[in-house]
Design goal:
Length: 142
């Protein structure tokens, strides 16, 4: 629904404000303007202070801008682009954005299949079912 442009140690550290789509209380909120001024101020206070030591006298970060859902979407897209430039495509991971419902579903099925195959391979190597499940989960996560 929006975001906070935060500067932390001279680096951008934007905070995206989102709500669950079908949430009983906030699910109909579509923009930061749906939030009361008090709620926005509470969010600002939290993000300005959550890293501070209890006796801190100086702030290490500042919030310079509160923005709407359109700008938040652009921030997310730019962040994804930066990630891909730095690390490449996230092989075997869920897509970073949902283009179509079926696309996400097929990606999830692919990840589940990989995990299941990993569990089966691990269980063939050991007689202890509990241990094989644990190893399968630990080593098959993408």
């Amino acid at each position: 629904i929006g975001g906070l442009r935060m500067i932390d140690g001279n680096q951008a550290d934007d905070k995206i404000i989102a709500v669950l789509r079908d949430d009983a209380v906030y699910g109909n909120w579509r923009a930061i303007s749906y939030c009361s001024t008090t709620l926005v101020e509470r969010l600002r206070h939290y993000f300005l202070t959550y890293k501070d030591a209890p006796d801190a006298t100086e702030r290490r970060c500042e919030i310079v801008h509160v923005y709407d859902q359109h700008e938040a979407y652009e921030v997310i897209l730019r962040s994804q682009k930066d990630y891909r430039e730095e690390f490449g495509e996230p092989d075997g991971q869920l897509p970073l954005t949902r283009r179509k419902r079926g696309e996400v579903k097929s990606q999830r099925a692919k990840v589940r299949k990989t995990r299941t195959e990993g569990k089966k391979a691990k269980s063939k190597r050991t007689n202890n079912k509990d241990e094989s499940w644990e190893l399968g989960m630990r080593f098959s996560n993408p």
